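Note to self: keep these together.
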Amino acid sequence: MTSLIFPHAPWTRTDEPLLWLSGFGHEVVTPATGYFHDSRKRPDPHLCLTLSLAGEGFYERRGVSTRLGPGMAFFDAMPGDFRYGYPLAATADFEFVWIDLVGPAAEVLWRRVIDRAGPVFDLGADNPVAPLMRSIVHQLAAGLMQDRYQMSARVYEVLMVMLSVLDRARLTTSPLVRRAVQAIHERGLRAGTDIGLIATQLGCAREHLTRAFAAAIGVSPGTYLLQHRLRRAQAELAASRDGLEAIARRCGFSGANYFCRVFREKIGITPQDFRSRPWVIKTGSVDQDADGPDRAK
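Structure:
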């Protein structure tokens, strides 16, 4: 395969909050060509996402080297205190795809990835990110990406799918959190169920479960439980004409008054308004535990 390397941005940047590419490529490195970059010497500040497709590369930070086999990726800021490239002792070709990003919107998502996985992470050899990145690079190279909005949307998809893969991997490697999620889905709508009770049933301290859950899922177990109840309540409001008291109790709330207060606070409209206009919802998400006697502690 002929390497595709485009070190320059395909569009002039504006002040719009988009994900801006400053370079992209799909390369195959051989023992004869070699490949090495010292990011400390890079003059152009940007974020580099590199994903290994075949063979082996390396990423080295502060004297610690990480093998970049198929499915391994790094996402780091340049210039930075790291080096990457093709191992001197390697004998097989190294194939990888990369995109360089700039701008505040890219920095926000980069920090989210770093907070969850660090600069180097394993997406798995058969990950869904690789075909998305290859598609972007080859469509850009062929002139098929029509404008900066389409480009930003495609890059955003790459980052969201990558975060999804990382979240699933953390859940898989945390049996306690996996069991807690299962418990919330099985028993979270029952009256009196809270995180303290679930932690007791799982044989751990509530504080330990909260730390492990937040690290794996990105929100506290109390927030997750409340989201679960409110999603079920939205479905009940849309599908039935039952009274609010009955719906509240079926969804794990102590009564209609508390349910209505939490629903309005988190969703942005009352349950009655949602029932008549279910498409009108508040922008955002349930981002904290509810207050009061039903708080998912």
